[in-house]
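Field reference: sequence -> structure
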Amino acid sequence: MKKKILITGGCGFIGANLCIHLKNLNFAVDSIDNLSRRGSRYKLGILKKNGIKNYKFNIEDYNKLKLLPRYDIIIDCCAEAAVEVSKKNIDQVINTNLIGTLKILNKAKRDKSKVIFLSTSRVYSISKINNLFKNNNFKNKLKVKTLIDEKFDTDSPMSIYGVTKLSSELFIKEFSYAFGLKYIINRFGVVSGPLQFGKEDQGFVSLWIWRHITKKKLNYIGYNGLGNQVRDILHIEDLCKIIEIQIRKINTINNKVFTVGGSRKNTISLNNLTKICEKVTKNKIKFGKIKLTSIYDIPYFVTSNKKITNTYNWKPKKNMFDIINDTYKWMINKKHKIKNYM
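Structure field:
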């Protein structure tokens, strides 16, 4: 019998990719998405073409949620993910990211479903990450020394967004202790690839690519405006693959927390991202400098995949060039449609 899977936020970038990936593997997949974000209706069309049903309502509406059929596994992708936005729309972020997850947990408890939760690297302490670079003027590219793993400090501050995701993690663990819920928590960092629009609140990699395609100006923001911040990037296909593996093994491997990212292999500064975008798009654009650094920004994040690699024998297959090139090809092919959602 096919495993029945419910994906929350199924018309988002990660959710839609997961829906399609798992449907192609012959899982029975449904989605919940309220279609409030620009671009979600475009992805809804893709889901429909793949025979995936979407239930249109807010995730925190338990009266509607409880009427859905039972699922073997619920994958909770639904989130208001923009860190800076979380300062402005606090109630919305809490309702979606925390209250919504609590409602999912109530349904999972009732139906004896397992839960795979997509958390975030932003649960880690901003101040402790900044302390890795004390007295650094950020005039040069930051060297990859510390790989951040599950044991890294999660003390505040971490952003309101980060707090909602860490709080959700704690509730998942409490439901496991109290009701026997089986779960996996994945703390993903930056993810990019096809189906990600080049908007400011949807990932800086796709933003960089789209601005190079359209020849529009960008800014290096924070840390003296020099573009030396460093991140590791994960291709959406590699994310889908590890979720697939976790689904297949969840009866024997569960109740664990993982950091998951591109790791050292896919680490890049903003300056180097610009160089690859220029190479792929064959366009150069103007850059401004904004020296002021947001209280929520961090200069560096590179994931340690040691635990998840040892557990599942999984490593990212796509490199940084693949990520940019695959996203670029999708954007060029769908350029006329993407413009409608920018």
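Note: The chain has a mean pLDDT of 95.
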